[in-house]
Amino acid sequence: MRTAFRLTAVSIVLLAIPTHTTPVAVSAADGVAPPTLHAQAPDASDVAEGMRLYLQKGDCQACHGWAADGRKMDSQMPDGPNLRETKLNRERLIQTIKCGRPGTGMPAFDKFAYSDGRCYGMTQADLKSPMPDPAATFQQREIELLVNFLLSKVVGKGPMNHAKCVEYWGSDVETCREFPQ
Q1: SS3 call for 125
Q2: In three state form, how does the secondary structure of 43-111 look?
Q3: pLDDT at 158 over 80
Q4: 3-state secondary structure of 172
Q5: Class of domain 43-178
Q6: Residue ranges covered by each domain of the chain
Q7: What is the pLDDT of residues 39-92, one digit of tens each?
Q8: 140-153 and 90-99 are packed helices; what angle lies between their axes, rounded to 10 degrees?
Q9: What is the rounded distance in angstroms from the CA atom of residue 100 to the CA atom of residue 107?
Q10: What's phi and psi for 6, nearest 5 deg?
């Protein structure tokens, strides 16, 4: 007879790090982003595709704002948190995008999120209220691209200003003119 053991302990992942740096352990227990090092930065075209997914396909700006600062674009949408100040690490960003946040306005962008217990061990029947519908659903690769964009251009970048706006868009677009130089 086989016995399946479910591991719920904190998982520690060692990242592949160049020899001139110190290895950093990543704890997934609390979802707070510890200092991490990535072997290589995402490709600029991947970051641009992630930005497109954020602004267009996922319409994340409707709740989180174009700069992901919580200044939503649609007054009819729920208030999204300021992602520029979030403490979520890569793993938790992926989980939140895939699974949404039950009991909040954050939808699940994984089409099958609550069909088989893959999200928080819950199925549709376990939810106290229905999850909101997302603008679209994402494939795993799209979620990775979106998270690459968030980690490159948003998370930990602090409040938006003119210089950050120009860096965000890649040029001094009209939107950046709302910020003093």
Answers
A1: helix
A2: CHHHHHHHHHHHHHHCCCHHHHCCCCCCCCCCCCCCCCCCCCCCCECHHHHHHHHHHCCCCCCCCCCCC
A3: yes
A4: coil
A5: mainly alpha
A6: 43-178
A7: 478 899 999 999 999 999 999 999 999 999 998 877 877 789 999 999 999 999
A8: 130
A9: 5
A10: -100, 120
CA pair distance 38, 58, nearest whole angstrom: 26
Contact call for residues 65 and 2 (beta carbons, < 8 A):
no
In this structure, the number of other CB atoms found within 10 A of the CB of residue 17 comes to: 14
Q: Considering the entire predicted model, what is its pTM?
A: 0.76
Token pair listed for 88: 């979520």
- Contact, 22 vs 33, CB < 8 A? no
% residues pLDDT > 90 (the chain): 70
Is the CB of residue 135 less than 8 Å from the CB of residue 62?
Answer: yes
Number of neighbouring beta carbons within 10 Å of residue 23: 10
pLDDT of residue 39: 47
Cβ atoms < 10 Å from Cβ of 26: 17
Is 149 exposed, middle or buried (CB count within 10 Å of its CB: 0-12, 13-18, 19+)? buried
